Amino acid sequence: MDRRQFLKIGTLSTGAVMAGGLPAGAKTETVKTYSSALETQGYVKEPARRIPVVDKADVVVVGGGPAGFAAAVAAARQGSDVLVLERQYFLGGLFTGCGVTPIINMYNPVRDGEPVKAVSGICEELCDRLDKVGMLNYEKVRPKVDPEAAKYYMEEMLSEAGVRLLYGVQAAEILMSGDRIATVIVEGKSGRVAIKADYVIDCSGDGDILEWAGEDFNVYKEDIGAMWRIGHAAASPRGNVTCIPGVLTRHTTGERQQDGLDMYNLTRIQLGLRKMMWEDAMDLRKNPGCEDLYLLDTPSVVGVRITRVLNSVANVTVEGAAVGKSYDDVIGFTGGDSTLSWEDKKVKVGSRKIWQVPYSALLPKKVTNLLVAGRCFGFERGLTYDAREIGTCLMTGQAAGTAAGIAALKRCGCREVNVPELQANLRRQKVKLDW
Ligand SMILES: Cc1cc2nc3c(=O)[nH]c(=O)nc-3n(C[C@H](O)[C@H](O)[C@H](O)COP(=O)(O)OP(=O)(O)OC[C@H]3O[C@@H](n4cnc5c(N)ncnc54)[C@H](O)[C@@H]3O)c2cc1C
């Protein structure tokens, strides 16, 4: 869809239409901006300017989603001074901001048997806190979590670990010094400012940092959807239970194969999803006993499943996940709680093996002080629906944070981190590395 088609979407407010449109008759050409192709009417030249350096940290974590949260806690527990840069005003990323309640891949569902816990460590610590206050529905396979409670306990855990947090800042650029990232430039209400970093962990979900650093990556397109909550919904024929009585979640996989890096496309999709969610609630009201049902909340972030994925030192392969391949540099296990296509077969949930993530899948090939965790670490296309689940993101985040903390202590590059030392450290944190 081009921007003229975008203008035609009905029932939008004038403000929204203006935000998406070029003046009629404007001459356009298509240019590549970052990883998307956008239309442009020309160019302006940005004058060079001095940018104030306002902060520095041993470890800068870009993004406070599940991966960034776990990475920050883990790095701080190694003794590093850690600064998280988050563009929203809450932690959890898609987990809490897109109303996602079940933590998938924490367990491996086994057909006709007890599910097996694959991810422990910080993921389990968070779940325990939520469980204590009744804000986690321990359904074993996919623990359902209250997003507001999760935001609160993630902030609590960051604070206890001594992590410094900066909300409302978007990482906008990086400055390199040789093969190291020296500075992260952010934009926020204080303007454009610079932050010095010894080590950087890219937990932006979209791999913003790894692209700017010149790393190799793939861009995947997937469904962009939403999860939302309805209240007064006990009698609703549709919806999934939550921790709060009478509140149900609803879900749409959304539009297929969408570009999650095109701001016009994202705005269009978010507007369409909000309309759909509202109409869904109104439709549900027609059911007996549902007359007072209401739309409780809609996602505050757009539900982008995948965009950039690192081409790492050694990507996890579909075969590796399917057969449960062992790696010498394993840093965690993950559940395998989605259907996997492998060798022209569908390996169904319940028959899937627990699979391993090696440290080398978090390592970029060029930059020496960068690690990548969460939905943009290195894996093959066929693992998109598996590698990005919250359980896996928490696990890769914890490993990346621990590795960055060790590297900061040793003053070594991320690829020089001693793997047995990293693994021993993770075991002390109750991360499962043995089966
Ligand atoms: C509709 C939908 C349903 C889903 N359902 C489930 C489910 O049922 N169970 C499950 O386990 N998983 C589910 N997922 C997947 C899961 O929620 C995500 O894959 C997971 O949250 C990714 O974690 P992350 O930390 O890698 O990235 P994100 O959650 O995307 O977090 C990235 C964070 O970085 C911040 N950020 C990004 N760029 C910048 C920047 N340049 N500067 C500063 N901050 C930045 C963002 O604001 C965000 O907070 C679903 C996803 C979607 C979209």
Question: How many helices does DSSP assign?
Answer: 12
**How confident is the prediction overall: mean pLDDT?**
92
* Poorly predicted parts: 1-21
Bound molecules: flavin-adenine dinucleotide
Structural key phrases:
single chain, about 425 residues, alpha+beta, FAD/NAD(P)-binding domain, 2 domains, 7-stranded mixed sheet, 5-stranded antiparallel sheet, 12 helices, 24 strands, globular, disordered N terminus, binds flavin-adenine dinucleotide
Task: Describe this entry's structure for a reader.
The protein has 435 residues and is an alpha+beta fold. It has two domains: 126 residues, no CATH class; 288 residues, FAD/NAD(P)-binding domain (3-Layer(bba) Sandwich), CATH 3.50.50. 28% of the residues lie in helices and 27% in strands. The chain is built from twelve helices and 24 strands. Strands 3, 4, 9, 10, 11, 12 and 24 form a seven-stranded mixed beta sheet that branches. The radius of gyration is 22 Å and the shape is globular. The protein binds flavin-adenine dinucleotide. Flavin-adenine dinucleotide binds next to helix 3, strand 4, helix 4, strand 10 and strand 14.
Record the SSE blueprint.
Elements: H1 3-7, H2 14-20, E1 29-33, E2 36-40, E3 53-62, H3 66-77, E4 82-86, H4 94-97, E5 107-108, E6 116-117, H5 121-132, E7 136-137, E8 144-145, H6 147-161, E9 164-167, E10 170-177, E11 180-188, E12 191-202, H7 208-212, E13 217-219, E14 222-231, E15 240-241, E16 248-258, H8 263-284, E17 294-297, E18 303-304, E19 308-310, H9 318-323, E20 330-334, E21 340-342, E22 345-347, E23 355-358, E24 370-372, H10 384-387, H11 390-410, H12 419-428
Parallel strand pairs: 3-4, 3-12, 4-9, 12-24
Antiparallel strand pairs: 1-2, 5-6, 7-8, 10-11, 11-12, 13-19, 14-16, 14-17, 14-18, 15-16, 20-23, 21-22
Helix pairs in contact: 3-6, 3-11
